Amino acid sequence: MNQPQTLPLRLLQISDTLCHASDDTALCWSSLPVWSNRSLQTLLAHLAKQEGFEALVLSGDVVQEETATSYQRVREIL
Questions:
Q1: How far apart are CA 21 and CA 37, in angstroms?
Q2: What span, in angstroms and rounded, lies between the C-alpha atoms of 16 and 60?
Q3: Considering the entire predicted model, what is its pTM?
Q4: 14: phi then psi, degrees, rounded to nearest 5
Q5: How many CB atoms are located within 10 Å of the residue 11 CB?
Q6: Is residue 78 within 8 Å of residue 44, measured between CB atoms?
Q7: pLDDT tens-digit map of 14-70
Q8: Would you call 23 exposed, middle or buried from its count of C-beta atoms within 10 A (0-12, 13-18, 19+)?
Q9: Using CB atoms within 10 A of its CB, is residue 24 exposed (0-12), middle (13-18) or buried (19+)?
């Protein structure tokens, strides 16, 4: 019996983006200035130039503040 040829599935995973409702909000608990929304936007711009992946997995703490506006902003960024 012949088995169908299978190809590897290439996934990209981003975890713990900790985004905010505003792009101008930095992480308050970091001793370094970290603007998580801007970091996600930069990372996604870089990934947009990559080829050969089938899906992006977003996991972990997606937002820092669990508010509808924070989740909406992440959706807009994506």
A1: 9
A2: 5
A3: 0.85
A4: -120, 130
A5: 10
A6: yes
A7: 999 999 999 999 998 888 999 999 999 999 999 999 888 999 999 999 999 999 999
A8: middle
A9: exposed
